[in-house]
Amino acid sequence: MNDYRWRILIIEDNRDDLALLNSILHKQNYWLAVAFNAREALSILHEYSIDLILMDISLPGIDGIELCRQLKADPVYTEIPTLFLSASVDQAIIDEALEAGGLDYVTKPFDHRELLARIESQINILESKRELEQVNRDLASMVKERTRELNEKNQALEKTLQQRTFLLQEVYHRVNNNLQFIQSLVAIDIPKSGNPEIAGFIKKFNSRIRTMAQIQGLLLHSKTLNSIDMTVFLSRMFLAERKDRNIDRDDCSFELPDTPMMLEINQAFPFGIALTEIFRHFIAQVTPGKKGEIFHISVTHEQSEKGITLRIRFDGAFRKQKTTLPSETDLLIITSLIEEQLEGKYATNEKECLDIHISFPYCKLEMFHPIPAD
Questions:
Q1: What 3-state DSSP class applies to 161?
Q2: Beta 295-303 vs 252-255: how paired, if at all?
């Protein structure tokens, strides 16, 4: 039975027409089942899987049109294509048959070539439909398998990211603890006499240590794990330096750009330390609580594929007093960090107010891609 092309159910009570149909269709290697009325047809449909129905309109008991309505109303049989056979050429009957769910209408007596063409047309449609269904099943299976693979990879990536995040947290805490330990050791060595030069050195030293700790902390919370938003660093660093000097925010204001300034970690450390040196020096010149004197610092930056340019403007009360530039030693540290480690330039302009310009090549950030776990 598996050698037959398709299974066709013929519902016909006229034996002569039935014999003719049997003769025509057997030559085409179709598997045929025969029913003389609606009851026998339903019994065959219940027992066998049928691909196509050829149905006479005039049947004893339930006619073909009513039987077609019942089959189309049943989800089990609604997809089986039905061709009506009838000697009637009444257009009203033809329309009713098609409205009941018939896909085609063949008049008797049959022209066997026309009949085969109508049947082949429906078979081709059915074959294309089943091929499409198989393609959809194959695609659904492929999507399911691909989704499973992606889920497994995502789980592996998530596990790897968690491991790296944990490792980064451990490194951060260890580095931070070591930096705090160094600060404590240095504090112990401060002479009880309170030598101002040594105390000033200790403050600078502790400020640099804090800068490194802040950069480590920003790296810990960075989404890419290889870049730091230096705008956030500038804000935190300024607030920390102002707090160290007991300077109220009304005495010294600070303005930052709204856009982030992302730096690769190897650039962030020398850049952050250099900025700390600059800010610490100038904030030290602010006199807390002096009425009528408001010191203002504004920062702007431009970032492109070629490089970064940062402008720090010291305005307000900085203009009223003679602003003292960093000492030779401090300036050497600043320029060394900018020019040697960042391969950039450091320049000052004192025409209207003090402007500091820092420029250096931009390091294109590569997005962090965790390596899948083995």
A1: helix
A2: parallel
The pLDDT tens digits along the chain (374 residues) read 445 678 999 999 888 888 888 888 888 888 899 999 999 999 999 999 899 999 999 889 899 999 999 999 999 999 899 999 888 888 998 899 999 988 888 888 878 888 888 888 888 888 888 889 889 999 999 999 998 988 888 888 888 777 766 666 666 566 666 666 666 666 665 555 466 666 666 666 666 676 776 676 666 666 666 678 888 888 888 888 888 788 887 788 888 888 888 888 788 888 888 888 888 888 888 877 666 678 888 899 888 878 889 999 888 887 766 667 777 888 888 899 899 988 999 998 877 778 889 999 877 654 443 434 43
Report CA torsion sign: 9, 14, 20, 23: positive
ω before 75 within 30° of 0 (cis)? no
d(CA 217, CA 233): 10
Contacts of 374 (CB under 8 A, 6+ apart): none
24, 110 Cβ separation under 8 angstroms: yes
Give the torsion sign (CA, 262, 264, 269, 275).
Answer: negative
Query: Is the pTM value of this prediction over 0.70?
Result: no
Rounded Cα–Cα distance for residues 237 and 206 (Å):
13
Is residue 9 a contact partner of residue 85, using CB atoms and an 8 Å limit? Answer: no
3-state class (DSSP) for residue 306 = coil
Which residue, 312, 228, 319, 235, is CA-closest to 270? 228
Q: Which two tokens stand for residue 122?
A: 């429906």
Query: Helix, strand, or coil here: 371?
Result: coil
Backbone angles phi, psi at 287, to 5 degrees: -95, 110
CB 149 within 8 A of CB 355: no
What's the CA gap between 101 and 160, in Å, rounded? 59
Contact of 356 with 312, CB cutoff 8 Å: yes
Q: Compute the distance between CA of residue 341 and CA of residue 273 in angstroms, rounded to an integer.
A: 11
**CA 319: distance to chain centroid?**
50
The one-letter code for the residue type at 158 is E
